Amino acid sequence: MYRIFILFCVSFCFLSCVNSNPSNVHDEIDKSAIIDSAMVVSAHPLASEIGKSILKKGGNAIDAAIAVQFALAVVHPSAGNIGGGGFMVIRLNKGDCYTLDFREKAPSTAHRDMYLNDDGTIVKRLSLDGSLAVGVPGTVDGMCKAHQKFGSLSWGELIQPSIELAQNGFPLTQLEADGLNYFVNSKLKFNSIEPSFIVKDNWLKGDSIYLHDLANTLYLIKAKRRAGFYEGEIALKITQEMERSSGVITSEDLQNYESIWREPLIGYYKNYKIISMGPPSSGGACLLQMLKMLEPFDLNQMGLHSYKSIHCIAEAEKRAFADRSKYMGDPDFIDVPLTQLLDSMYLKHRMSNYSSIMATLSDSIFPGNFNFKESDQTTHYSIVDTYGNAVSVTTTLNSSYGSGVVVGSAGFLLNNEMDDFSSKPGQPNLYGLIGGEANSIQPNKRMLSSMTPTILEKNGQLFMVVGTPGGSTIITGVLQTILNVIEYDLSIQDAVSIGRFHHQWRPDEIKIESNKFDSLVIQQLKQMGHSFKSVNSMNRVDAIVISEGLLEGGADPRGDDSCSGF
Ligand code: DON
Where are the alpha helices (H) located in 438-529, listed in sequence order? Predict the structure, then answer.
């Protein structure tokens, strides 16, 4: 009854907002919606609107994803990008699945110790700030590949709305204004040519910003597709930027970049099929590991956000992250033992030292041994089209505004994805993640990711499209959103909005969103040996659930995220 009531209220709210004029869309961001045809949930209302307009024209989910990707590069520059990379998971309406890896690559002159001093210590922030932090961008090639294989509308139609936004300007939300102020104060110094269009004393909500250089870059991509970015004027601007600021990406690196169709990673949890991203993302593999480790436990009986369920989930998270640290990296460079890592007997064994009353210290958890003796500022968008095709994309510059470098007179930001490698195996990166040799830097290698764009089927039918930004917390954010729906029967909006927690093995602590958990529960968990670190917010999950012929969207209230559909 409660759910039907909520459904009614949300539908009413949606119907009253769905035809809103994009120019005032910032005032009434549609956080959730229940509709019956097609939907986009993304990090920005203008990007969601553009995606919806493509779906309305008869475009499919892949067309809409491409349009949303370019739109986010304009309206959500901290994470939306053409200078970064990402992963796309596709499920067509007949059930065929595809995954596209458009992750950045190390430049061809990159080497293992490029971020180390002579004495072997890490040069602080060298893998994060400025041109040397940049991986060869994959987004434009990825969008071209996706369009070549599945696009139904013309390439130009998908980019034109973003060119217009960049050219004609658009009003900033509060969050985007805050973001630009942060950029001006902390990242401007990494630019060899001042990106004057961003420079302003104080950006305010409602200010309009005009991105003429970016409009020109997008125009070239529209006209020349891949060659508009990896060759000619824009490629030259990127390499000139590198030369001015000691970066190492060459014109050959750009020309040689290729996104790759990879085998989808598929696993099962109860009667759900999980379709996710395999290496070089660790996201899908860790998610499937955690779900399999948790399957034998009665999480529903333990209760949502009870000390028992938080303990149990955190213990599974620790063990998966320990495996991540040793075994995962670019599959074109190392052998990732996926079969062993996902083996159900192995995962049962992995939880064999689990105690329901005490935290297992991370110091006593090690990456698994397969020879055990037993018989066992990223952004995400989710799209479903009128034909029943689904797309889940997570894309990133790595940290907010990436390397901070705007390519001189080309108007777009470059990533700082090189920090996702282990600059020094055994030492933590920005997200505190420990990596090993498997993720050491090598020329042309892809850095390990945690991005987890995922699609679920229930009884053979499309059930959920989900993903989020958040560095290492991506995997646990996706895990908990799935469990909130499957185990605790929350609506997708509640599943997205509710508090989240995160354990990544090292450091040995549970990161927890402040004021979202019962203090008694925290007390009990502390008594079991868990430590806590409070953070303001984690992730921005954007998801869609398909149930009884309806599409139910959940946009994260932690950001400007919005649902749009019809
Ligand atoms: O690929 C990764 O795992 C990271 N570069 C993702 C970074 C991220 O999610 C930052 N977002 N808030």
Answer: 473-486, 492-497, 519-527
340 plus 459 within the same structural domain:
yes
pLDDT tens, position by position, 63-77: 999 999 999 999 999
Question: SS in 3 state form for 402-439?
Answer: CCCCECCCCCCECCCHHHHCECCCCCECCCCCECCHHH
Domain shared by 308 and 413, yes or no: no
Q: Are 553 and 566 in contact (CB under 8 A)?
A: no
CA 451 to ligand 1: nearest atom? 3
Given the residues 99, 139, 250, 378, the one annotated as active site: 378
pLDDT of 22 reads 39
Best residue among 72, 325, 418, 450 to mutate for probing ligand 1, ranked by most atoms within 8 Å of CB = 450
Distance 544 CA to ligand 1 centre (A): 21
**In the chain, pLDDT over 70 holds for what percent of residues?**
94
Clarify whether residues 318 and 343 are in a common domain: yes
Tell me which residues have their CB closer than 6 angstroms to ligand 1. Answer: 377-378, 396, 398, 417, 420, 449-451, 469-471, 474
Residue 512 three-state SS: strand
User: For the segment 133-184, what is each residue's pLDDT rounded down to a tens digit?
Assistant: 999 999 999 999 999 999 999 999 999 999 999 999 999 999 999 999 999 9
Based on the domain organization, do 357 and 413 belong to the same domain? no
| Closest by Cα among 394, 457, 475 to 99 | 394
Indicate whether 238 and 299 sit together in one domain.
Answer: no
For the cut 90, the answer to whether the pLDDT of residue 371 exceeds it is: no
Give the domain range for residue 316.
264-375+451-561
**378 a catalytic residue:** yes
- pTM equals 0.94
| 378 Cα: distance to centroid of ligand 1 (angstroms) | 5
Reading the block at residue 287, the tokens are 């998610």
Specify whether 125 is located in the same domain as 189: yes
Q: Do residues 174 and 285 both lie within one domain?
A: no
